[in-house]
Structures are given as structure tokens and as C-alpha cells.
Amino acid sequence: MANSPKGEGAKLRVLALPRQARTAELPDPSEEPYGAMLKRRQPHRAGGERGQALVEFSLVSVLLFILVFGIIDFGIGLHSWITVTNAAREGARIGAVHATEAEIITQVEDVAANLDMTDVTITVTNAEGASGEALTVKVDYKYDLITPLASLLSLASFDISSTSEMRLE
Q1: In this predicted model, what pLDDT tens digit does every residue of 39-67 receive, in sequence order?
Q2: Residue 78 to residues 21, 56, 72, 129, 145: CA-CA distances in angstroms?
Q3: Contact at 8 Å (CB) between 111 and 90?
Q4: Gap between the Cα atoms of 81 and 93, Å rounded
Q5: pTM of the model
Q6: CA 57 distance to own-chain centroid
Q7: pLDDT-based confidence at 157, cuts 50/70/90?
Q8: What per-residue string of b and e applies to 28-62 under the rule 16 or more CB within 10 Å gives b?
Q9: Rounded to an integer, what distance in angstroms lies between the CA atom of residue 87 and that of residue 140?
Q10: I need a surface site. Which of 49, 94, 96, 138 has the fewest CB within 10 A?
Q11: What's the first-to-final CA gap in the chain, in angstroms?
Q12: Cα–Cα distance between 88 and 109 in angstroms, integer?
């Protein structure tokens, strides 16, 4: 070691230290103040707070269910509106190439097949007119809400209507 450079000797001396000197000593968790921080304290519940979570859930769950049913109603209503609009447009499109009134109604019913057809009214105007005249297809649908709260507000259903007009070719 006498011939070795100064840096290597320092490394050897550090490695030769006892194990306790090389590792950092961690405090004992049972000793203060570290033990108090590591212990988990259970919250103390008074006797009157025993059913508090159940009461809070029952109050909030009513609002949550109304919100969820409202979102579902809105989605189904939007789907119905899009279907009615598309059915009227498809009926007018097929009628623009000189289809009969029966063929137009059949096309509208095919496009609106996922709706309750007892609530659908189809009106076709000028189905077999002259070239260049306007053909009008009107589709009306009565949409019933599924939210039970809507019946309390006198809003159990509402009407969806779409009119499409195209020039006969």
C-alpha cells in the first residue's frame, strides 16, 4: 500500500470500516417522536354518528338516480330525434325520383324501424307531382320519457317532428 496512489488507499480504508459505520442508522419506530407518526390512529366515532353514512347515501342516491335517468332519457330522446329526421329525409330522397306514396311510406318505416311505429305519423304531400315541383315528407313521433319524475312534472311525453322537402326530378 505504500506504493499505491493516494486515492486507492482511501477506498480501501472506507471499505474496511465495520458494517455499522457504513450504513446509516435508522431510528427505532417505537421510540418518540417517530413512533407517534407511524402509528395509525383509528378515528373515534361517537354513538350518534353510527348511521350517518347510510343517511347521507340515501339522500345523495336519490339525486344520483334522477341524474342518471335524466341522462338516459336525454340520450334516447336524441336518438329518436335523429331517427325521425333521417326517416323524413330518406322518404323525401326516394320520393324525389318518382316513387309512389306507398313506397315512400315503406322507406320511412324501414328507416324508423327501431321506433314504436304506433306513435309514428307519416304524411306525404305531392308524391306523384310534375317534375320540378316540391315533394314534402313529414314524420311525427310521440316520445315517452322513462324517468318517473317526469310524470310528476306533467312531462310524461313530448312530440318530435321533422319535415323534409325535395324537388321532384
Answers
A1: 566 566 555 667 888 889 999 998 898 88
A2: 74, 33, 10, 34, 12
A3: yes
A4: 18
A5: 0.65
A6: 22
A7: confident
A8: eeeeeeeeeeeeeeeeeeeeeeeeeeeeeeeeeee
A9: 10
A10: 49
A11: 107
A12: 10
The HSE-up count of residue 165 (CA atoms within 13 Å, CB side) is: 6
Cell of 164: 323534409
Radius of gyration of the chain (CA): 39
Instruction: Fill in the amino acid letter for 165.
Output: E
Q: What are phi and psi of 49, to 5 degrees?
A: -100, 10
* Whole-number Å distance between alpha carbons of 125 and 119: 20
Best CA proximity match to 86, nearest among 64, 110, 103: 110
What angle separates helix 52-95 from helix 101-111, to the nearest 10 degrees?
Answer: 150
Among candidate residues 169, 120, 126, the one with its CA nearest the CA of residue 141: 120
51, 52, 55, 56: CA torsion to nearest 10: -150
Domain ranges of the chain: 60-167
Cβ atoms 115, 83 nearer than 8 A:
yes
Please name the amino acid found at residue 59.
L
